[in-house]
Amino acid sequence: MSVHPFDWQGLAWGGLALAVVGHWLARELGLVDTGDLALLLPLVLIVAGLVGVTVSVLRPRRPRTTPDPSPTTTPEEHR
Question: What is the mean pLDDT of each run of 10 residues along the chain (79 residues)?
Fold first, then answer.
């Protein structure tokens, strides 16, 4: 089984979709009223933004690789 890289962007959009559906469900069940939306939705977006900034700052940087200046073929091979 091969290991695939983790997709943070997919996690962020999935979390946002889950928050929207969760809020809709809470409103339908009467757990949250419309006035709470003015505080709840911005709070979810701020937390998601902070998580995104934290992940981007803590992500390990790959060292830049410079191309090898030496040619891969010798002049004799071009004849």
Answer: 79 84 85 75 83 82 67 60
What is the C-alpha to C-alpha distance for residues 67 and 32, in angstroms, rounded to an integer? Answer: 58
Structure token pair of residue 16: 């946002």
pTM exceeding the 0.70 threshold for the entire prediction? no
Distance of CA 25 to the CA centre of its chain: 25
Give the chain as a 3 state SS string.
CCCCCCCHHHHHHHHHHHHHHHHHHHHHCCCCCHHHHHHHHHHHHHHHHHHHHHHHHHCCCCCCCCCCCCCCCCHHHHC
Single-letter residue type at 60 = P
